[in-house]
Every structure is written in C-alpha cells, then in structure tokens.
Amino acid sequence: MPWGMSLKSDLRRFKNLTTGHAVIMGRVTFETIGRPLPHRRNIVLTRGDFRADGCDVVHSLEEALAVACGDCFVIGGAEIYRQALPLADTVFETVVEAEFVGDRYFGPLGSEWVLSESSHLYPDEDSPYGLRFLTWRKEVAHD
What we know:
Layout: H1 8-18, E1 22-26, H2 27-33, E2 41-45, E3 55-58, H3 61-68, E4 72-74, H4 78-84, E5 90-97, E6 113-121, E7 130-138
Parallel strand pairs: 1-2, 1-4, 2-3
Antiparallel strand pairs: 5-7, 6-7
C-alpha cells in the first residue's frame, strides 16, 4: 500500500475486526506483513511450495474456506479478493482521502451491494489523511 503503515486508525479498525478470526491472504501479502498476525488463524494461499511457521498453507480458495471453518476475513491480495468477492456477504472498506499512484486497485462493488455503515475520520496524529470506513452488505435477491 502506498501509504505504508502510517494509518494507525485503520490498523486499529483492522485489528478489532479480525482478532479472533481466520484471515486468508496470498503469499505476497503474507511476505509483506512479514509474520503471522497474532490472535488469528493465518491461512496463506499460494500456487507453489511455501511454508511459514504459525500459518496454514493452502492451494485454493475452497481449501482456505474449509480450513477457516466459519466467518473469516480475506485480507489480500488482488487475485484473492477477485475470487472471494462473489462468495462474500460483507465488505469492510477503508477509503483513504488522497491520490496515490499504484498498480492494484479495488474497483467499485456491483449493484447488489448496499452501504450499511459509514463513518469519517479527519486527518489527525493517527493518520495524515482523512479516512472513510464503509461497511457494505450484499443484498439478497428475493424471488
């Protein structure tokens, strides 16, 4: 992420949401973090041979979801988000109110997603940028 680890308010929210749950991530995301996240079941999805102490290593999203055994959080990267989004019922999004150059973007959600919660934080000592925390819920189609 171009802003690095400078968004303490976002990191606090992430920790509060994910602690006590399984987190599913790709190998590159795991290597970027550099260690298993404490107090979570860390599941690393990879195509190749990979091992990491304190992590379950799997080779498909289906296997990751089976290992997670219930509610879990997909925390990156882009390909895993793309695969998991059709299966998700909730998306927790942080919008950083600044312009960045990057090579990965999370595009807009489809019309089946409804904004259920929204909060705004102005720049402060915990974040040099304004932040919007959005919670999206997938609308269930009724026949």
